[in-house]
Amino acid sequence: MSNQLMIRERCFIWGQRTYLMGILNVTPDSFSDGGKFNTVSAALNQAQAMVAAGADIIDIGGQSTRPGAEQITLTEELDRVLSVLQVIRPEIAIPISVDTTRANVAKAAVLSGADIVNDISGGTFDSEMLSTVANLDVPIMLMHIRGTPQTMQQQTDYQDLIGDIYSFLSQQINAAIAAGIKHDNIIIDPGIGFAKNYEQNLEIFRRLQTLKALNCPILVGASRKSFIGKILNQPDPQARVWGTAAACSAAIFYGADILRVHDVSEMREVALVADAIYR
Q: How much is the pLDDT for 37?
């Protein structure tokens, strides 16, 4: 892969430092912050706060992907995402990604100013996604998942966890390239918590380096997730900041290029120190 990617006049140089993607859920039901930022004014304030705290990308999602989350209609997802995006885009200069599995949402969001598509299905839920992203000529984040958010917790019976993740991501990278997406525009995500149990999440960290052979930047999204809650015996996702910090430090040590986080200010400090040590 090229060691750099230009997005909205910003140069991401892979391997030099860790980049932070700030999570902006404009949903009423996300696992950690559902309902906190699902008004336009609250979303704008949060986006501006994350930029001030050091976020490199803002990731806007209108469909919750927590375990068991109900699928909303296309119209509802479009309304949630576009109403926020149209207000935020003129106010912040950093790249914005849209967290969606629907090609129609991806296209509408990019036409309204989004710069990246973040697809938790790795381009598998919507047969039009990869060709749509190719036509839009924007980067895509391909994540590993089994099943859907409704069924994924029952699909953790792997014979070879890392082998399966590697194979799936390799297949989707090839499919993306075949659809016309440039290799340098592909970022991969092993999918912490998506059809993975407690032990499997930990194994992903320990063996993250294996995915380097796919020759794409690696995104890790561990922020506030349930495996951290289990370790800490902490049922409240918002009280998992220190545990998230440890997971982020481990992700950097094992080769992550981007961290998808809720607590940007705190994880910026974690990344700065971890980068100074490990890079």
A: 65
Residue 83 burial (10 A CB sphere; 0-12, 13-18, 19+): middle
Q: How many other CB atoms are there within 10 angstroms of residue 21's CB atom?
A: 27
Q: Bridge partners of 96? A: 58
Per the annotation, the verdict on 196 as an active-site residue is no
Cα(171)–Cα(148) distance, rounded to whole angstroms? 18
| Cα–Cα nearest to 65, from 147, 140, 141, 128 | 147
Tell me which of 196, 225, 240, 268 is the catalytic residue.
225
Q: Is the pTM of this model over 0.85?
A: yes
| Catalytic annotation present for 260 | yes
Q: Give the other-Cβ count within 10 Å of 15's Cβ.
A: 11
Contact in structure between 69 and 150 (CB atoms under 8 Å): yes
Any residues with CB less than 8 A from the CB of 135 and at least 6 apart, and which? 180
- Please tell me which residue in 196, 224, 260, 268 is annotated as part of the active site: 260
Q: Give the containing element (helix H, strand E) for 257.
A: none
Contacts of 154 (CB under 8 A, 6+ apart): 147
CA 183 to chain centre: 18
Q: Counting Cβ atoms within 10 Å, is residue 225 exposed (0-12), middle (13-18) or buried (19+)?
A: buried
pLDDT for the residue 27: 74
Encode pLDDT of 193-216 as tens digits.
999 999 999 999 999 999 999 999
Q: For residue 1, what pLDDT band results from cuts at 50, 70 and 90?
A: low
Q: At what angle do helices 103-111 and 129-136 cross, to 10 degrees?
A: 20
Q: What pLDDT, on a 0 to 100 scale, did the predictor assign at position 35?
A: 53
Question: Burial of 137 by CB count in 10 Å (0-12 exposed, 13-18 middle, 19+ buried)?
Answer: exposed
DSSP secondary-structure letter at 213? G
